[in-house]
Amino acid sequence: MAGVAPEARANPETEVAGREARLDLSIIIVGYNSSEPLTECFRSLEACPDRVTREIILVDNASTDRTVEMVREAFPAVHVYANTANVGLSRAVNRGIRESRGRYVLVLNPDVEVAAGSLDALVGFMDATPTAGLAGSKLLNSDGTLQMSCRSFYTFWTLLLRRTVLGKIFRRSRSIRHHLMLDYDHATAREVDWVLGACMVVRREALADVGGMDERFFLYFEDVDWCYRMWRGGWTVWYVPDSVMHHRHARDSARPGVNRLLIAHLISLLHFYEKWGGLIYRMKKHRRILVTTFNLVADLLAINGGFVLAYALRSSLRGLFTKPLFGLGVYDAFLVFANIVFVLVFAFFGLYGGRRERESGAEIALRVTRAAIVAGVVLMASTFMTSQTVYSRLLVGAFCVLVVVLDVVLRGILRWIQKQARAGRFDLTRVVVVGTGPTATLLAERIAAAPTLGYDLAGLVSGGTPETGDSVRRLAVPVIGSLDELPELIERQRIEEVIFAEPDLPSTEIADFLFRARRSTVDVKMVSDLTNLLTQRARVEEFLDVPIVAFEREALLGAQAGIKRVGDVVGASLLLAISSPVLAVAGLVSGITGRGALFAGEERIGRSERVYRKWGLRSQERPTALRRYVERHGLSRVPELLNVVSGEMSLVGPTPLTERQAVACSAGERVRFDARPGITGLSQVASAAHAVRDGGRALDAYYVQNWSLGGDLQIAVRWWLLCLGGRCAPRAD
Questions:
Q1: Strand, helix or coil at 429?
Q2: 46 phi, psi to nearest 5 deg
Q3: pLDDT for position 415
């Protein structure tokens, strides 16, 4: 999330409530093994006779050179906050902002020494320039020469000259002069694109609008991004030469050869252009086309690779068959036909939709398997209908199986690459939430708290006119504009997805936005009270020239419930047959040791709200290591197979509820009692990102309303993977 990661999103206005009167300036310094320069920095601040009231905050990133101890002993007035790990510059600065209480926040590097009068000049300028969101002082090198600390934004040519040997060849390049602002006298205050992060003062109101530093920038480019966001948020950035400071600028990332800091600099550069680059933004807006292309390439590789492997397998078994195996050239027409069939069937099963990119691996595997079965039937039938008799049906069968295996593996690799990119905060979908009420802020907080989902939260958009003053600063997430401004914000803030989360917002305003933003190619989602009613069998249709929503009968009634019941009986019987020897041995051991019954029954509320006795392992006050192992791997639920066979439970279904839990269900959630409770279910395999506060009751209701055999298979596979990995948490039922 841009500048408002979970650890740093708390708004400064609310953090200071009840504390002593606000100061003029909060000076935040991030240290890492920098005790020597910090000593000089703090001494220069102590020697400053400035009139501004101030506080000094040191956030230490797990130094190993006794920095924290030294500062606490030598400079007791400094507020010290010690991180247990090196969390990076941006995250440490944001922690300092949370703890600050000044009208302005001054971010200083530890190797900066403050000249007398500089703080007064900086605060005075900000007071006199209300449009200034961020400003930087004039920085001098150790020898007193001017340091080029104000810059224009990078261009591609500037990057080449600054980061390659070309810079030594074209030393007098106009691009470099423009980037470093060499033709500016640095004697008068002026607006600039950005200033070095060694010294930046930020207005508290600007923080409320654009947020703190973006924590995806571990080191470098956090200053460029902050200034860029100030400009895009309607604030200005200034260079203030009347405020002078000395900076021991080392430019460690520019040292010859590859080093750790150079790598960090390049990663931050990629983050910046992945976030703000126009070309990348346009590519991400058409993400579905790219995802579809990659999936299509993976499928073609799987199809043709599967055929080659199947042919090699058939060739290796040549001696077992009387019919000869013809050369590969004979199968050219068949292979072309197979490619067409597989691609068309995969498209029919929705395997090329960009909306599927967040599906689980189990869901994709099941979808690929079903599509491959259909394609295999078509191909097998074609070998009977053709006049040629050269096709080996063993080859065709093995070919279809190998296509499934290879395609699942290749698509899994693509998903793993995407997951790693998102873990590194790349390939994020920039999203804005419309609304400033409880629903919108809660949704925004959950988006920020789940970075693995791949979202980058730009902020909130108010439903009416832009909110100002305390009403904005009370919110934990910046309000970046109003609904009227949203079409312009989409382009300015590089928005790819809009989520409407204001229940009271008139539908006419949403429709007006959709019309005005129809060419922006953004995805739109909406939080609505109607979601409890809408199922996969709800559809919009025309009735007497009036658009209406039609609801078909519920999923688990009639013949469909019978199909599910047959699957339960067959599956549970097979699983009981497999596990019966283990249960018998466990019962025998329990009887010999005299520790009481192995199983115990507990009352639960089942289908049609009838009470039944659910079987399970006897509870233990102090679970043994073996018992914890059994629970983590889902083996503790084996006795529930008896309930499945007797018709009281299902293999997959809603979570079994106690009588007290059943009474707490709302009218909409009571649809769960149309189905048998399950050994596992949707609410039990949902990831933490999809967890809900009601204990999964809404997910259980959704499952019943949207039941399908394929959905049960997906849940069963995901449950099996959890059990296999020992990640099955004990069910709180």
A1: strand
A2: -65, -35
A3: 84
Contact 218, 208 (CB under 8 A): no
Cα dist. 718→103, 686, 722 in Å?
Answer: 52, 9, 6
User: What is the domain extent for residue 720?
Assistant: 559-724
Which residue, among 559, 567, 531, 543, has the nearest Cα to 644 in the 3D structure?
567
Please check whether residues 205 and 296 belong to one and the same domain. no
- Helix 89-99 / helix 222-232 crossing angle, nearest 10 deg: 60
Q: Is the pTM of this model over 0.90?
A: no
CB-CB contact of 721 with 362 (8 Å) = yes
- The verdict on 33 and 94 lying in the same domain is yes
* pLDDT tens readout for residues 457-510: 888 888 754 444 333 334 467 888 888 888 888 888 888 889 988 777 777 787
- Are 629 and 510 in the same domain? no
The DSSP output letter for 668 is G
Hey, which residues does 61 pair with through a beta bridge?
A: 83
Q: How many CB atoms lie within 10 A of CB 6?
A: 15
User: For residues 114-146, b (16+ Cβ closer than 10 Å) or e, as one string?
Assistant: bbebbbbbbbbbbeebeebbbbbbbbbeeeeee
68-89 core/surface letters (b: 16 or more CB in 10 A; e: else): bebbeeebeebebebbeebbbb
Q: Are residues 359 and 468 in the same domain?
A: no
Question: Hunting for tokens 């099963």 — which residue is that?
Answer: 349
Q: Which residue has the tokens 């290749």?
A: 410
At 247-284, the pLDDT tens digits run 986 555 445 555 677 787 788 888 888 888 878 887 87
Cα–Cα distance, 305 to 487 (Å, whole number):
46
Task: Look up tokens 């491959």; give the residue.
Answer: 372
- pLDDT digit string, tens, across residues 648-688: 999 999 989 988 888 888 877 888 888 899 999 888 887 54
29 located within any domain: yes
Clarify whether residues 246 and 138 are in a common domain.
yes
Q: Is residue 480 part of a domain?
A: yes
Pairing of strands 102-108, 199-203: antiparallel
CA distance 169 to 173: 9
Q: Retrieve residue 575's tokens.
A: 């699983």
Number of Cβ within 10 Å of residue 588's Cβ equals: 11
**Where among 368, 403, 423 does a domain terminate?**
423
Q: Evaluate if residue 691 carries a pLDDT over 70.
A: no
* Residues 226, 305 within the same domain: no
Q: Into how many domains does the chain fold?
A: 4
Q: At what angle do helices 278-285 and 287-316 cross, to 10 degrees?
A: 60
The pLDDT of residue 19 is 40
Which residues are within 8 A (CB) of 543 and not within 5 positions of it... i.e. 6 or more apart?
550
Give the sign of the dihedral formed by CA 126, CA 132, CA 134, CA 139: negative
The CA angle 2-130-225, to the nearest 5 degrees, is 20
Residue 164, φ and ψ in degrees, nearest 5? -135, 175
Residues 415 and 481 in one domain: no
Residues 567 and 475 occupy one common structural domain: no
Which residue(s) pair with 82 in the sheet? 60
Whose tokens are 């009968």? That residue is 553
* Sign of the C-alpha dihedral computed for residues 682, 684, 687 and 692 taken in this order: positive
Give me Rg for the CA atoms of the chain: 32
CA gap 212, 100 in Å, rounded: 12
218 φ/ψ angles, rounded to the nearest 5 degrees: -65, -45
* Residue 729 belongs to some domain of the structure: no
**Position 600 in a domain:** yes
